[in-house]
Amino acid sequence: MSAKIELAEVDKRFAGGVEAVQALSIAIEPGQFVSLLGPSGCGKSTVLRLVAGLERPTAGQVRVDGLAVGTREAAISYVFQDPTLMPWASAEDNVALPLRIKRIARAPAREQARQALAGVGLADRARALPAQLSGGMKMRVSIARALITRPDALLLDEPFAALDEITRHRLNDELLALWAEQGPTALFVTHSVFEAVYLSQRVLVMSGQPGRLVADLTVDLPYPRAAVLRLQPQFLQHCRRVTDALERDRLPAGAGRP
Questions:
Q1: Do β-strands 76-79 and 153-157 pair in parallel, antiparallel, or remain unpaired?
Q2: Which of 18, 116, 218, 254 has its CA 20 to 30 A from that of 171?
């Protein structure tokens, strides 16, 4: 199967000589849910921005559907760590924005937005302004907005990092349900080993700056996944494998774990 998202020997250097990623090669198949994990500053967000076409590689190739990013418009949606909602607009109008940009008439756009909000459990908050929503609700609105166009690829940059653990777990489940329903290729950035394992079919572990791929780990746990999975030995074994990969990268050359 050909890759949906592919980075081939990608380097990215910023002004001043900062090297964010180095010789990075990743291939993600259509419909996969993949998490990108690594220390702060290792280039995880840079990878998302490269895939979205918001940054250009210094060297190497970034391709979506086999074509270089930027050569054609790709059906990609991006969820940022901050919900980035328009504060003056209702939840409904925030979600409808991508459709309005595509010149879909206001009435059908709002109807689709109401359906998308219902899909994230916010049917009764369609007319609420962002200031009237909790942090978890704002992120639900952001996810509904990202998915309203039914994108082929969904990029998520630590969307739940600022939320409490209970809300974070609930939104993990809701995100997996939406992914199962729509089937986009998902690339999810997180600092949480437990979140990465719970959500993903693969966990890609990156080194410290410059970011390099140091492990590509399969998570062979069946879907649908439920909260009880976090207590099961198989889940904890996968978490240990991911943690070991992170720790190996931090050890000096030649050192081993005690």
A1: parallel
A2: 218
Whether residues 55 and 117 share a domain: the answer is no
Q: Please check whether residues 38 and 129 belong to one and the same domain.
A: no
Domain span at residue 193? Answer: 5-75+152-250
CATH number at residue 25: 3.40.50.300
pTM of structure: 0.92
Could you give the number of structural domains in the chain?
Answer: 2
- Angstrom distance (rounded) from CA 243 to CA 194: 10
